Amino acid sequence: MSIFKLEQSRRAITFDFLFYGFSVLVLVILLALNCPSSKWWLAITLSFAGFAISSLVEYFSHRFILHGVKPFSNWHQRHHDQPKAGIGTPTIVSASLIVLLIFIPVGLSLNLFYALAVTLGVVAGYGTYSVTHHATHHWHGHSRWLTRRKYWHGLHHCVRPDRCFGVTSSCWDQLFGTSQEKYVSRPKYE
Question: What is the pTM of this model?
Fold first, then answer.
C-alpha cells in the first residue's frame, strides 16, 4: 500500500476513516487535559470555528485548486472521469497539511490550548468530508441527508462541474453564487 497513491484501496480508505476518528478522540482527550476550567465554552467555540474553517477550506480548495491549479486539476479530473474509483487525497498528505497549516501556526502564535481546540474542529470537519464524499459515491443509503448530498454532488459531477463545489454542505455555494440555479432530473454517475 503506497501512502502517496491517489487511487486508494479499500484498506487505505478504511484507514483514513479510522485515522480521523481516532484523531478526534485523541484531540478531545488532549484538549480536556489542557483546557483551563474557566475556558470550556471557548474550547467548544474554537472547535466549532475549526469545523467551519474546514468546511470553507473544502469549498475553496475544491473550487479553485482542484478545478483550477495544475497538477491538482489533472488529478481531480481523473476523479470526475472515474467517480467510482477510490481516487482521493492520501491520509499522510491531508494530515500533514492540517498539522503544518493549522496546528503548528496556531500553537506558535497563541498556545497549545487554542491549537488543540481549532485543530479538533478542523480534523472533525475533514473526517466528515472524507466520509461524506465516499458516501456520495459508494453508499446506497436512503436517509434524507445522504440523498440530498448525493444529488448535490451528482449535479457537480454530471451536470455543472463549475457549480456545487461543497460536499458536506451547500451553504458556501449559496453564499458565493455557485449553487445550481435550477434543479434538473436526478444525475447518475454510477
Answer: 0.89
